[in-house]
Amino acid sequence: MDDDYRAGLERNLRSLFVLHLGSGMMLSIAVIVPFLQSNGLGLREILLLQSIFATAIIVLEIPTGYFSDRIGRVPMAIAGSVAGFLAFVVYALSESFWGFACAEVLLAIGFSCYSGTLEALTYDSLLELGREKEFRKINGRQMLMHFGAESAGAVLAGFLALISLRTPFWANTLPFGIACIASLSLIEPKRHKIDHHNHWKAVWDICTHTLVRSKALRSIVLLHACIASMTLMLFWSTQPFQQQIGLPLVYFGMTHAIFVAAGALASGFAHTLEKRIDDRLILLGIALTVVACFLALGTIPALWALVFFLLTRTAWGILTPTTNDLVNRMTDSSVRSTVLSVKGMAMRIIFACSAPFFGAFSDLHGINAALLFAGIIGGAVLTIVFLSMRSVWAEIPR
Description:
Blueprint: H1 3-24, H2 32-38, H3 43-70, H4 73-93, H5 97-114, H6 117-128, H7 135-163, H8 167-171, H9 173-183, H10 199-213, H11 215-244, H12 252-268, H13 270-273, H14 279-299, H15 307-329, H16 336-365, H17 367-388
Helix pairs in contact: 1-6, 1-7, 1-9, 3-4, 3-5, 3-16, 4-5, 4-6, 4-9, 6-16, 7-12, 7-15, 10-11, 11-14, 11-15, 11-16, 11-17, 12-15, 14-15, 14-17, 16-17
């Protein structure tokens, strides 16, 4: 292997850490609910914005993943960084629902360009270096960097919000600006590319293989989609729950930082679990933890119940690198980014369909009742998913 090429691949790994840091330092996310409420939005409208974000990602996720496989990982990484930067400029300037909706669409473009691309670029770089077995460890550290940045940013956001609730959104343009610069240093690893002139047919073939023909791969994608959509729903319930129990706004950033730090540490050490526990049992444990947290939060409207948000973020921190690694091991480099995008799209479809109903239910009956109801429904769905996995349980990599 050429020395310059090897050096470029090693630089990829360092630059990808910077991209994860830049995209993770979401200073605004710790105070986004109070910010949107200060602009006249209720929880129904706030979750409708997230449904718009999720719908945009559903539309874009697979095409951007396919373009990543077809055109290259690096152009999509650059596009994602630029779109994220522009999204926060629009967010900081907006004062109405439709302005925020435009920002969410730009943010969706950014994250859909990143989704699958960064993981595939990491795996392909490691594969070229002969270090593909390190993927779960490296991806876990990337998630540690991502959530560690989000945790640090959340603490800062709590204080920036005392100046103005809009200040964290302006501050968020800085880390995405750094990500734009870092993305320009990436190089494209050598890999197999799709040799297909009918692009829509190629995308259809990949989707049907992932969701229909490969039962084992389908089970991982659906399981991840169900659990991840529940954790995302719980994430958007954190600030309304804190408002209900009377937690002062200045502590919102601190609690968010603690929750995210728990997820970051879990991601960083997720690779150590595979040495001790079967991956399939890890997934079962994650599902049970998330459902239990929903049910507990639905029945305990108290300050100490915030610990269940921490447990959920810990479970999610383990879920992401575990399922990413399983999908990477079950797919070829020529379609890897697209398959990872299908995985992300499945989660967004479930969230986009359920979020507006959850928000409306919460506005009518309160956040606790909404969490309890969602926990019961989610537990029933996950039970069905696990029961359907029995026939392919042995095919899932351990």
